[in-house]
Specification:
mainly alpha; 3 helices
C-alpha cells in the first residue's frame, strides 16, 4: 500500500508549487511597501528651494549659488 493514497506524488508537487507562489506574493508585497516608504519629494518645490538644497549638500560652490540665486530673482 502506498503512503500517499491514490493521488501519489502529484498532490505533493501542487502543495510545493502553492507554497512557492505564496512566498513570492509575500515577498512582492514586502518589497513594494519598502519602496514606497522612503521620503517623498514634494512636487511643489520652487527653483530657489532646490538651489538651497544643492548648496546645503555641497553640490555647488558659494559663487555658483550666488550667481544662480541672482538669476532666479
Amino acid at each position: 500500500m502506498e503512503g500517499f493514497g491514490h493521488h501519489g506524488w502529484g498532490m505533493i508537487w501542487w502543495w510545493i508549487i502553492g507554497l512557492i507562489i505564496l512566498i513570492l506574493l509575500v515577498w512582492l508585497i514586502v518589497r513594494s511597501s519598502e519602496r514606497g516608504g522612503g521620503p517623498v519629494a514634494s512636487p511643489k518645490k520652487s527653483a530657489m528651494d532646490i538651489l538651497k538644497e544643492r548648496y546645503a549638500r555641497g553640490e555647488i560652490s558659494k559663487e555658483e549659488y550666488d550667481s544662480r540665486k541672482k538669476d532666479l530673482m
